[in-house]
Structures are given as structure tokens and as C-alpha cells.
Write a structure and sequence with these properties.
Order of helices and strands of chain A: HEHHEEHH
Helix content of chain A: 55-70%
Largest interface: A-B, 32 and 32 residues
Strand order of the largest sheet of chain A: 1-3-2
Shape of chain A: elongated
Strand content of chain A: 5-15%
Oligomer: homotetramer
Number of strands of chain A: 3
Structural class of chain A: mainly alpha
Largest sheet of chain A: 3 strands, antiparallel
Number of helices of chain A: 5
Chain lengths: 137, 137, 137, 137
Amino acid sequence: MRWTIDADNGVPIFEQLVRQVQFAVARGILVPGQIVPSTRELARQLAINPNTVQRAYSELQNLQVLEPLRGRGVAVCPGAARQCQAERKVWLTERVQQVVDEAIQGGLAPDELRELFERVVARREKQQVQHSKRGGE
Amino acid sequence: MRWTIDADNGVPIFEQLVRQVQFAVARGILVPGQIVPSTRELARQLAINPNTVQRAYSELQNLQVLEPLRGRGVAVCPGAARQCQAERKVWLTERVQQVVDEAIQGGLAPDELRELFERVVARREKQQVQHSKRGGE
Amino acid sequence: MRWTIDADNGVPIFEQLVRQVQFAVARGILVPGQIVPSTRELARQLAINPNTVQRAYSELQNLQVLEPLRGRGVAVCPGAARQCQAERKVWLTERVQQVVDEAIQGGLAPDELRELFERVVARREKQQVQHSKRGGE
Amino acid sequence: MRWTIDADNGVPIFEQLVRQVQFAVARGILVPGQIVPSTRELARQLAINPNTVQRAYSELQNLQVLEPLRGRGVAVCPGAARQCQAERKVWLTERVQQVVDEAIQGGLAPDELRELFERVVARREKQQVQHSKRGGE
DNA sequence: GTGGTCTAGACCACC
DNA sequence: GTGGTCTAGACCACG
């Protein structure tokens, strides 16, 4: 799995990690039973504070996505996949609703918004295709 | 103009005010030369601290959207409309891009995203219609 | 005498008026004994608040530049010319010192500052010449 | 870097700080990536309120001169140097123009103004030399 | 009455 | 520890 963080986008780093794990589990990139990197190791890789990784893992344990295996590390919970998929859907719906509300509250007509959205998605779709041709996951 | 703030949505109050003014100017609800409510008056209306309003107005002055008229109040700058419209467009595009990226990075296929988006917009559109039947601006 | 004010340059209006009178007296444009416009009249001309004119005149009386003549208006004090010239010199020296200090404190070498100053003065000088050809006082 | 403020010169403290940082960056005294003192620390040093420092830093972030590094402090933006140099030049030119205009509007002949300016600069230059002999930056 | 600035103290999230 | 936001209350200058 490829870990990435963006220190400049306002979203707390630990939260980026939490979502990244949830999404990876939802997509099957991380499978139940699989051991995730140790906090120290991952912190080193991403050049961030170990406390930050610790906080992310800790939240994921509360969410029953990860579970500590004494002495061996931290692993993905069995059965986490389905739950993560549900959570992903809820979360994305919320996010979409937010920006739709903002746009409408800002005076954009629904059709203008549709057009704007389609333009953005199309662009990303194109990039995605090119990207997957070059590399893949 | 209708002023509203939501103290619980994470976005700083002063920032909500800044955006609200920018959008209102972009939509022509506030027109150049018009005097906006005094800091104290608006603070009273919204039940927030005058300093918070002051900060919002202050930032809007930096952005050349508002200008103080000494002793008389604060007014919308001439020529602010066009600039606010441009700014609104940029800002909304950024926001849409963010959530599109999040969705795609979360493993949603473009078509699934389109469907999700359309569902949300349709719902809001319906509410909007009912709302405008009842009240209007 | 030509009265002008600039509501947007940060300098309080009443202060602009005070300086304008002082300078006019120093240059002989206003002579001792001459009656200045009534507060209401001047306020009307400049489209400002009569209180503002009143405040300016009041300060000028404290400075012994103007004196009220009961029933006839406000006049330039006898002997105000010399005093205003002295005051003008002091005041301008202070102002020049201020910006010189700012420039040096900002890291500009004296010679760079000299060059900048000369450029600005030369430009103004040129404008002044053209201006006096067209109109004059 | 040496921080100084003058609470009695009419210029708001936060603005003095803003300019001081801009000039220091322009001169290379503060370099991109460098961490500036924490708001609390600087406030303590200068014996002012932390909010005042906060406001200065906040404005400098809007100007893209400083950027917050979450949990670690506030740093000079990469690329801020060139921008600050440009800004400094514009700002100083404006200031010089102001006093030149005032002087000319006050009836001073260009050559009288030149003489006044030269006298002031020469005096400051002399002080500067003595000062740098004693101390240095 | 208006805006502008500053102080004081509190709370929060992040690292 | 850091920055960020908000509240409360005071003072000043301007019109």
C-alpha cells in the first residue's frame, strides 16, 4: 500500500491516515489479518511525529478497524471491510452534500453546479486513465 | 440581506462572514456603495462578539471588497462585484475538486461519484423549490 | 484660495484643513486680517460635516493662526505668517526624517534612497511645470 | 534578528511587526524556512499581548510571507524574499511620494526640498556610521 | 454614532 | 509545546 500525506491541506495528518486506512480496507488493499507498519516505522517513512501515527492507529482501534496483536504489531480486524465500505459511503455523501450546499448558498444555479462538477470529474477521469496506464497501484 | 452563521460547523465565524459578504456581492445582493451593518449592530443581531465582526470586515478591507467611510460606516467597494464573482468561481471550483479527489482517492468509480452527486443535487434542488415557494429571499 | 480634501488618504480631514490653512498663510495666499469662509459655507463647499470644519478652525485658533471676530466671522491673525512659516519648516523636516528613518531601517542604503528621492522629485517637478503652464494658482 | 516596536508613534503595533518582518525577509535577515519566534515568546519579549503578535503573523500569512507549520511554529515561506523586496520598494516609493507631495503642496520649491532632504539624510548617514562602529546588526 | 486597536483570559486542535 | 479562535471590556480618533 502507498501511504501519502499532505501537510499543507489543512486536514490534520492523523485524520488523513485514518481515512487512508479506512479506504484501503474498503477497497481490499488492506485485508483482514494483514499487519500494518509499526508506528515508528511508518512515522519514519512519512517523516512525521510518531505520536501522530499513534493517534491515527488509536482511533482506528476505537473504530474496530485495527486491533493490536500482542508482540506482533497491529492488524486489520476481521470483518472490517464491510463496515469500512459503509462508512466510506456515509462520509463521502456528507462531503458532497457540504459542497453542494455551499455552492447553492453561494447563489450557483443547480445546472451551473452540474456543469462545474462534470468538468472537474472529467478532468480527473482523464488524468486517472493516463496515470493507470503509466503505473497502476 | 439575510445573515446566518453556524457556530458548530468548524469553519471560523469570521470566515463564514467573509464568504457570505463575498457571495452576496457576487450575486448583487450587496451593491457597491451600499453601507453594511455596523460592527456593533451586526454583532448584536448575530449574538456574537463585535470583535469577530470587526475581524471579518477587516479581512474584507484587505481584499478590497469593503472600505471604511470614516465616521459613517463601512461600504462595499466600487468594482468589488466582478472581483467577487471571479473569487467565488475559483473557490467553488477548488472545493469541488477537493471532494472529487477524495472520492476518487477513496476508490469510487467516476460513475458511482456522478450518481452520488446527482442524487444529492436533485434532493437539494427539490428543497430549494419548496423553499422558494414558501418564502423567497 | 483653493480648498481640497482627500477623504481616502488616511489623514483626518480636520487635519488636512489645518495644514492647508497654515501653508496658505505661510505662502501669503491667506493674509492677516482676511476672513476665511464660515464653517457652514466651507462644509457645504467640501461636502463634509460642519463639525469637522469647526474642529479645524478651533485648532487653528489655539495655534493663534485664526481669530474669531464677533459677528463678522473668523480671520487670519496678524503676525501669523512668520509663525506659520516656522511651523511649516519644522513640520516638513519631521516628515522627511520619518521616511528617511523608515527607509534606512528598512535596509536601504543612503545612496539608493537618494536616487529614489531624486526620481520622485524630478517627476513631480516636471508635472508642476506643465501644470503651471496650463493654469497656475 | 532584533525586534523593536514603538508604542507611541501612531502606527499600530501589529503593523509595525508586519513591516518589520517584510523588511527583514527582503534583507535576508530572515530566510525562507526559518522559524520565527512563537507568538507567546515574541509577545513576552516585547511585553505586548500575544494576540497582537498573532494578528501580525496572521496578516503575514495572508500575504504569503509566513506559513504555519502545525505544532512546530511559523516559518518564512519559500520564495517570500523576492516578493518582500518588491513590496518594500513599492511601499517606500509611496512614502517618499507622499512627503514630496506634501512639501510641494506646502509651497516649498524643489530645490529647497532637495536641500532639506540632503541635510536629513547626511545626518542619519553619520549616525549610522557611528552606530555600526559600536555595534552592528 | 462609527471603526480601529489593544489587553486579558479562555478554549480548542495539533504535533 | 505550538497556532487559531472567540469573548469581554476598555480606550482612542473621527464625524
